[in-house]
Specification:
- About 60% of the residues lie in helices and about 0% in strands.
- The protein has 26 helices and 2 strands.
- The chain has helices spanning about 15-30, 40-55, 55-70, 80-85, 90-95, 100-110, 120-130, 135-155, 160-165, 190-205, 210-215, 230-235, 240-245, 250-255, 255-260, 265-280, 290-305, 310-320, 330-335, 345-350, 350-360, 365-375, 395-410, 420-430, 440-450, 455-460, and strands at about 15, 260-265.
- Strands 1-2 form a two-stranded antiparallel ribbon.
- Helix 10 crosses helix 11 (about 210-215) and helix 21 (about 350-360) packs antiparallel against helix 22.
């Protein structure tokens, strides 16, 4: 028997931006291959520098959000990195952050290109990337920076914050990307954020002394020479490295005035945040392009058929947009693999609901959603993952999202096969109804698909321009 359908979802109270952005910064750490807390540590370092510089409070506020959200566009180049360099995007990104010069760059390419490839294939790939490394790196950085700035604007951050994110990889001497900005033309937020990033990466991997020396070595080339002494004074302060790795650092960052900023819970803003992060999620792989938005649409359609109250329907659509946020922590060598996954790869893939739950459960207004989203690969017979939940543990919300997710997985292109026609997708889902998926939710999906005029509706859903954030609340 299907559990009772929830009639509403109350969301009173306030939303603390620090809690929201801190959780999402953890998701960004996943897709950059960085140790947990990288963005938080960068925020702490950058805000320490801001205090030393005597920046006014308004400027500190914008810097705070720039530091937490600096990697908003980082998922958008993951697939391209795997394609160009034949390597694991997470390791590639993590290791690349310690590269600081042309000579180191060549060595980095030898160590990180064509991993697991035959010797001849590795040499051919190396020759291609070395010959075109400037244009390739420029392409990857431009994609990341521009996408990150666009998402920041969608999340209602100021233009100063968006500009800081867009210019994260610019260098003081004009040798950076994507615009080749020079000197003071680079926004101050970007200058501080890049130095904080390098300071964290080198301190965590090599120690505070190495981090300070690295900043000094790049003074005048990568970094503003007047800012470097401010940072090195902080880094060489006794106990800096210990404080940076202290478990209480997160609480300290969230105790900042900027993090304490609260606003009444605004349903429209929560919708926009969810939609914005669905773009981050779906940018990870060409095979997931539009997946979260389509699952959100199918979820809403099923909810309509089942008689969900408008507020709860809206809540469910929000959860569908975020259900795959844990995939940011899965390498594209796994996500985009055209063949069968190995046992180790499959085990890693099955962790993505757990990673997603860790992110969403950190946000008070999303904690219930975290449980629902984490269950989208569970089955009624208990043979699903990651927890092996059975029918008595799977709520209607969980069952709805599982049906919507499976339907899109079958009717969209995947690395290992083309999209299935509707009849073939239904044939597979017919076999799942009962042991795997809820028959009532599946029937509701079929009724909704018939009413939508499939396949023309599918074609509209496949177009990125066809999504309208108003769809989130169309019945609210």
């Amino acid at each position: 028997m299907t559990p009772a359908i929830p009639t509403d979802s109350a969301a009173p109270g306030t939303l603390r931006l620090g809690e929201l952005l801190g959780a999402f910064s953890h998701a960004l750490d996943l897709t950059e291959g960085q140790p947990k807390g990288h963005c938080l540590r960068c925020c702490w370092i950058g805000m320490q520098a801001a205090a030393a510089l005597g920046l006014p409070q308004q400027a500190r506020s914008g810097l705070y959000f720039t530091l937490l959200m600096k990697d908003l566009g980082c998922s958008s180049n993951a697939a391209r990195i795997c394609q160009l360099y034949l390597t694991d995007d997470l390791n590639f990104k993590r290791n690349f952050k310690t590269v600081s010069g042309a000579r180191q760059g060549i060595g980095f390419l030898f160590r990180n290109t064509g991993l697991g490839s035959a010797p001849l294939q590795k040499l051919k790939t190396l020759g291609h990337v070395i010959a075109k490394n400037g244009s390739l790196s420029g392409e990857l950085i431009e994609t990341r920076c521009n996408r990150g700035a666009a998402i920041a604007r969608q999340m209602r951050f100021s233009e100063d914050v968006a500009a800081g994110i867009a210019a994260l990889d610019e260098h003081w001497d004009g040798g950076g990307r994507p615009q080749g900005l020079r000197g003071s033309a680079i926004p101050l937020y970007a200058r501080i954020a890049l130095m904080a990033q390098v300071a964290d990466v080198f301190t965590v991997s090599l120690g505070a002394g190495a981090a300070a020396a690295e900043l000094e070595r790049r003074a005048g080339s990568w970094f503003d020479p007047e800012l470097v002494p401010v940072f090195t004074a902080l880094i060489r302060r006794p106990g800096f490295a210990r404080a940076l790795m202290d478990p209480g650092l997160e609480a300290e960052v969230f105790a900042a005035e900027q993090a304490q900023h609260s606003r009444p819970v605004d349903e429209d803003y929560l919708d926009e945040i969810s939609e914005a992060f669905s773009l981050v999620i779906d940018a990870k792989s060409p095979f997931t392009h539009g997946h979260s938005r389509r699952v959100a649409r199918y979820t809403g359609m099923i909810c309509d058929q089942l008689g969900y109250a408008p507020a709860r329907r809206r809540w469910m659509v929000r959860g569908a947009l975020l259900h795959d946020i844990g995939k940011l922590g899965i390498s594209n060598t796994i996500l985009d693999k055209p063949g069968r996954l190995t046992g180790g790869e499959l085990a890693r893939m099955k962790l993505h609901p757990v990673l997603g739950h860790e992110v969403l459960s950190r946000i008070p207004v999303f904690r219930e959603l975290a449980d629902v989203s984490a269950a989208h690969h569970e089955r009624l017979d208990g043979k699903g993952y990651p927890y092996g939940l059975g029918a008595d543990q799977l709520t209607t919300d969980m069952r709805v999202l599982a049906v919507a997710d499976i339907f899109d997985a079958l009717t969209a292109d995947r690395p290992y096969r083309a999209a299935l026609p509707l009849e073939e997708a239904y044939a597979i889902m017919d076999g799942l109804a009962g042991p795997g998926i809820d028959p009532d939710c599946y029937a509701a999906l079929q009724d909704a698909v018939t009413a939508s005029g499939w396949p023309s509706s599918r074609e509209r859903l496949a177009e990125a321009s066809g999504w309208d954030s108003g769809d989130l609340a169309e019945t609210a």
